[in-house]
Each structure stands twice: as C-alpha cells, then as structure tokens.
Amino acid sequence: MIGRIIKLYILFCLALSVYSQSPGGSPPTYSRSLETALRTELFTTNTYSVLQRPEDRTRVKVSMTLLTVNDMDIKTQIMSVSGYFSLSWLDDRLSWTNTSATSQDYTNVRFLFSTETYVWKPALIVENSVDSISVITDKNIPMRINPIGNIEWNPTGIYLVSCSSDITYYPLDQQTCTIKLTTWGYTNNEIYLVYDTKPIELGFYSENGEWVLVSASGEQVQDKSRGGQSFSSLSFSITLRRRPLFHALNTILPVVLMAFLIPMVYRLPVDSGEKIGYSLTVLLAYAVYLTLISDNIPSTSVSVCYLTVYLVIVLGLGVLSVVFVILVISTFHLGDKPVSSCLGAIGRLIAKIICNDKCSCCHRKQNPDTVMPITESKKLPAEMQLEDDKTTETPMTYQAFSVLLDRFLFYAYLTIVTVTTFLFSLLGFVHFASL
C-alpha cells in the first residue's frame, strides 16, 4: 500500500514538471536577468544591425508637443519654440510576442528601453532651422520598445526657424510660422512620414507674455526634391497674435498725441519767439519715434507698415509746418505795409472761409471821424452795406495777413491730422477685430 502511494506521488511530480515546461504553462515572472536575456537574444544572438532600416519602406508617425513660444522676432524673422517631436515606427526585429521564435517566454517583460546607439532611427532634419541644420539626435533620450516591436522616441529641443513676417498692421499684427520636418538620406521610397492622430499637442503649452497662440496645426506638404530624389516632408504651422496693450501705450498713443501738437504751433503768438523752437522740437520728436519703430521692423519691401506710413505723413506735415512758421514770422515782421492786391485777395478769401466777422478777422481800420447815421444804416440793404464796407476798408497789412494765415493753417493742420489719424486707427482696429 505504501509502495503504491509512493509510485503515485512520483508520477504526479513528473507530470507537474512536464506541465510547467510545456508552452501552455505560466511564463516566468519579470526579473532583471530575464530582461538581460531578452536584450542579449534580440541585439546579439539575432545580430541586430543599427544601420539597417526595419523594412523596405518604413512608415514613421510624427507629432509635435509644443511647450512654449520663447520669442518671435519680426526684425530678424526668427521664431524660437521649445518642444519635442514624438516619433514612432515598427521594427519587427525587436518583437518578442512570438514565443516559438524565442528561446523562452518573455511575456512578462512589458517594455524594453534603449538608445539610438543600439536601435535604428530615421534621419530627420528641421529644414528651415537657422541655428544649425543637422540630423535630430540625442543619445541620452531613451527609446521605448513594446512587445510587438513598436518604438517610440521623443527628442526634445529649442528650435529656431526662419519665419517670413507680415508687418502691414504692426503692432496689431498676426504672424504664421512653420516648422518643416523632412527626411535626410532616406528617400520617399525608403521612409515616408505621416501625422499621428493629433499633429500638434498643446496639453503642456505655457503662454508667452508678448504673443497669443491662435492656432497650431499640421499641413501635409509636397515631398521635397533634391538631386532628382524625392524626400518625405511634413510642416507644422503655428499662428501667433501680438498682445497689443504694451505697444498701444508705448508706441501708438504717444505718436497720436504728438501728431496733435503740430497744429498748436499756429496758436502761439508770433511775438512770443517760441514758434520756431516749438515746431523743431515736435519735428525732432517724430524723427526719433520713426527711428525707434524702424529699428523694430525688418528691412523688407515685401509689405509696408501702415504705422510707418502714418509717421512719414505726420513727419512731412511737421517739416512743412517749419516752412510755414518761417513764412508767417517773416510776413508778420514786415509790419503795417500794405500787401499786394494778390495777397489781399487771398487774405479776404481766407477770412471768408474761417471768419464769421470779416472786419474782426481782417483787422480793418475805419476812420473814427466818419460816423454813419444809424437810421440810414438800417435802411441800407445787405448788398449795399457790403459794398459800403468794401469802399471804407483800408488795404490789408502784412501783420493782418500773417494773423489770418496763422489761423487758416491751424484749422487746416488740425483737420488733416484728425482725418489721417482716424483713417489709420479705423484700419488697424477693423483688422484687429477680424483676427
């Protein structure tokens, strides 16, 4: 009886041992030695070559995670962003799901991590980089390999790319820049790039203090051709809008306020001696602002900045105001000499335009000894009274003409500056509201 029991126990142990070694048994649990064995089998035993691509035409999925916009310099036309690319491709040489093709069951090894030193990776460059055009590489960033041989790699970097700036509505501008990614060395028949589910990921994006991120998207572009060969290429578009408050307070508002200082030179009395100094000061202030703004915009003729056009117009008005002020002062100092008949006609025309009371505007002098009876004056019709005024007025003097010219130039300049400022402001606000 005891011998039979011993025989049954031995048979049970043998059956249990056979079952545990059969393919249907439970796989070994994860351990460092198990992962080391898997690495040795994949990279050494199977003679894995890092220079050989996984298949004849490898598909690489690409997406970009944008972390922040560091700078957008419209003068140098360079955009700087921080982020990382997410690349994934299938390399079936690094798969361990098929237990029949491996020496043991590695199912409990869920991931392997390696670097580009030991694993093949696609050669990619940022085509429009201005910092350095080189293959994206980083030996310190691990690659994540899953059991079916799918590899995920996330190279990070600060990317400086060229960006064509549109300065038409500066500083209420919006810029669209692209990051162009293309293969290098491998043609379109060997590697082709496709977008992942979401081309640009913004989950970790941090706002920039000067620029607002309007949109970010991926655009499929035509493959690049170099030396008769076609290379796969992708483009990531980033649209930025400038925050207007800083420039509105520090650029636009001072420029507009200084524009309205130009007409005020014609309100200063000629004998104050400050007209020339005042007009030259305003002119120089505008020249300084024009220089400051020119230093912040690119030297390009592709687009013209409306703010620069406005400054040039106002600067031209300031230059003309200096000429007119000199004319007014020189005319005033000619004293009580009568003007020529031509200037007198011009003076009377100006008086009709800007004055309600011709006599007070023209500073006409009447003979105090000549007194017209009130009853007779009331009986004269308006036409006869106007003719009588013309016969009794003395010739206009140069001083009177300079005063009229001063008043006319004040209203003319004020009207021109107001209309010009309104039109350019309306143009900028309509554009900004449409963004």
Name the descriptors.
39% helix, seven-stranded mixed beta sheet, alpha+beta, single chain, 435 residues, four-stranded antiparallel beta sheet, rod-shaped
Summary, kept brief:
This protein has 435 residues and is an alpha+beta fold. Helix content is 39%, strand content 22%.
Provide a descriptive summary of the structure in words.
The protein has 10 helices and 13 strands. With 435 residues, the chain is α+β, with helices and mostly antiparallel strands. Strands 1, 2, 3, 5, 6, 7 and 9 form a 7-stranded mixed beta sheet that branches. The model is unreliable at 11-24 and 362-391 (pLDDT under 50). A hairpin with a 4-residue loop joins strand 1 and strand 2. The radius of gyration is 42 Å and the shape is rod-shaped. The longest helix is centred in the C-terminal third of the chain and has 37 residues, at 398-434. Helix 3 runs antiparallel to helix 4 and helix 6 packs across helix 10.
Rg over CA atoms = 42 Å
The SS-based structural class is alpha+beta
Mean pLDDT, to the nearest integer, reads: 83
Oligomeric state of the chains in view: single chain
Total strand segments: 13
Discrete helix count:
10
Strand content: 15-25%
Assign an overall shape: rod-shaped
| C-alpha end-to-end distance | 96 Å
| Poorly predicted spans | 11-24, 362-391
Order of helices and strands: HHEEEEEEEEEEEEEHHHHHHHH
Helix content bin: 25-40%
Main β-sheet, in a few words?
A: 7 strands, mixed
